[in-house]
Amino acid sequence: MFHTPNYHFTIERQADLLADMDLWEPAQPGVFEKGHFHSYYEILVFRKGGGTHQMADEVFEVEDFSVHILANNKFHELRRTTATDGFEIIFSEVFLEQLQQFDRKTNYIQYFSESRVLNFDREAFESLEIYFRELVVHRDNKSIFCNLVSLILLKLISSDLNIGRSATNVTFEKALLSLLQTHYKEKPGAAFYAAAMNMSLNTFQRHTKSAFGKSLMEVQNEKILQEVKFLLTKSEVPIKEISLDFNFTDESHFTHFFRKHIGTSPSAFRRSSMS
């Protein structure tokens, strides 16, 4: 059976797991790394394009002044040419979750859960290049480096809103995320949000799919799981109380929900996060 390798961080200390960068050596003609998976997230930055980059089932031409965002645990294969110039930023799920808890108004987990390509013009790319250069300068100072990575992630999200999406989608997403922040624990259905936004159910569902690439239930569940995981790892609140706070009928229903999406029970998740 064909085996696709799965690459992980090689770390000596827990701090090394958070974020890092890899400055590429010049590519050799016809030589490239075979397709594989990563347990971490990657941002591939291309000052000079050339070659192709496959992410999941899609193959993209690598253009000048482009940024490719690769979600964790997603297959990819980069075939650079000798002209390609760039580097990659690497960050872990732990890093992303900590950033999400610090800045809850920006949906980092939602955004970086999907691979995507951002093509910039020279001027827009050079505005990001300032921060890329600072990463290299401060690579050995983990505190400054991680703060710079956080800022770059926010800049990329903001840039994508400006260059890659319609004003309708941006307005809709902000309005829905605001409602979710207030009501997600109650787990209302799509009809509730459609009425709150003065839309028909079909129109609401169409806008949700266009803005998020998924259904309302999937978006809401991601928000619930994000907050539950935070409580399990950062607090000593009993699991029974968490289940009640999120309006599950009983603890077994909550455990079933959590296991379905995360692959383990809440108690096992809490133990593993503390080990």
Write the layout of secondary structure elements.
Blueprint: E1 6-7, E2 19-23, E3 37-38, E4 41-48, E5 52-55, E6 58-61, E7 66-70, E8 76-79, E9 85-91, H1 93-102, H2 108-112, E10 116-119, H3 122-137, H4 142-163, H5 167-183, H6 190-196, H7 201-212, H8 216-234, H9 239-245, H10 251-262, H11 266-274
Parallel strand pairs: 1-3
Antiparallel strand pairs: 2-9, 4-7, 4-9, 5-6, 5-8, 7-10
User: Kindly state the mean pLDDT as a whole number?
Assistant: 86
Instruction: State the CATH class of the largest domain.
Output: Mainly Beta
> Which runs of at least 5 residues are low in confidence (pLDDT < 50)?
1-15
Q: How many separate domains make up the residues?
A: 2
Q: What's the architecture of the largest domain in CATH terms?
A: Sandwich
Q: CATH superfamily membership of the largest domain, which one?
A: Regulatory protein AraC
Name the shape in a single word. Answer: globular
Number of DSSP strand runs: 10
User: How are strands sequenced across the largest beta sheet?
Assistant: 2-9-4-7-10
Give the number of helices. 11
CATH fold name of the largest domain: Jelly Rolls
Main beta sheet strand tally, sense and closure:
5 strands, antiparallel
Q: Give the N-to-C terminal Cα separation.
A: 35 Å
Estimate the helix proportion, in percent.
Answer: 40-55%
Question: Any overview of this molecule?
Answer:
The chain is an alpha+beta fold and 275 residues long. It folds into 2 domains: 158 residues, Regulatory protein AraC (Jelly Rolls, Sandwich); 108 residues, Orthogonal Bundle (Arc Repressor Mutant, subunit A), CATH 1.10.10.60. Helix content is 49%, strand content 16%. The protein is built from 11 helices and 10 strands. Strands 2-9-4-7-10 form a 5-stranded antiparallel β-sheet. A 3-stranded antiparallel β-sheet has the order 6-5-8, with no helix packed on it.
